[in-house]
Amino acid sequence: GVQILLGRMCHLDDTWGLGVQILLGAVAFSVLILKRYCERPRRDLKIWLFDASKQAIAASLVHIFNVVFSDYLTGETTDHDPCTWYFMNVMLDSTLGLALIYGALRLVGWLVYRYDWNALRSGEYGQPPQVTIWLAQLGVYLGIALAEKLIVSALLIAPFWEQLGNIILAPMANFSQKFEAVFVMLIVPCVINAIWFWIVDNFLMRAETAKPRRRRINPFNMEMEEFEGDNEDDLLL
């Protein structure tokens, strides 16, 4: 079997760890900038800032929670590595957590449609855009993100996750604790967050903006024309 290596400590809140976290935040947020640059049509700058800031604020709070939670679970003993807990947090967040957030946002979308809660229509902030509407939508998303984090954290209490994380990270911890910190705090989260931010931004942006541009035949002049939507029946018009 694989021997679990204990007695290693990877500090996530020292100068090195804090520097890596700041860099991670900058890289992750740049994904949203790139996404807006690639958009057709491109969102208005203020609308994009409202959309992106919801993710940025939620991600910052979740990131802090991950660090605090890993330190809380490991305590003062050197028999546990907070990097292991943070790594498993990130991995579960990017799989189960993403599915939970998607389901919750779909549920909120249905409730908004059912009860006509216009202020909570994600990505719509009024004309002109209003901060109060953005705050309401931010509160909803923060609640969803917190609920997802609590569910994932409850699962992580099981010893199985620590053992699995130790097995995965043991080679890196033996090589260099600094490299382990970079791998756990930068390499893995950077790749995963890039995908996460891109996908969740599609959930949070205005529905009409997210629809792809497609082509169909106009039956009146038999010419191809572009339209926005995802209904296959429209192709027959």
Key descriptive features of the protein:
disordered C terminus, two-stranded antiparallel ribbon, disordered N terminus, 237 residues, mainly alpha, single chain
3D structure, described in words:
The protein is globular. By secondary structure, the chain is mainly alpha-helical. The protein has a two-stranded antiparallel ribbon. The termini are far apart. Strand 1 (213-217) and strand 2 form a beta hairpin. The chain has helices spanning 15-38, 45-74, 82-115, 131-156, 159-175, 177-204, 207-210, and strands spanning 213-217, 224-228. It is 69% helix and 4% strand. Helix 2 runs parallel beside helix 4, helix 2 crosses helix 6 and helix 5 (159-175) packs across helix 6 (177-204).
Structural class: mainly alpha
What share of the residues does DSSP label as strand, in percent?
under 5%
Spatial ordering of strands, largest sheet = 1-2
Biggest sheet statistics: 2 strands, antiparallel
Summarize the structure.
This protein has 237 residues and is mainly alpha-helical.
SSE topology sketch:
Elements: H1 15-38, H2 45-74, H3 82-115, H4 131-156, H5 159-175, H6 177-204, H7 207-210, E1 213-217, E2 224-228
Antiparallel strand pairs: 1-2
Helix pairs in contact: 1-2, 1-6, 2-3, 2-4, 2-6, 3-4, 3-5, 3-6, 5-6
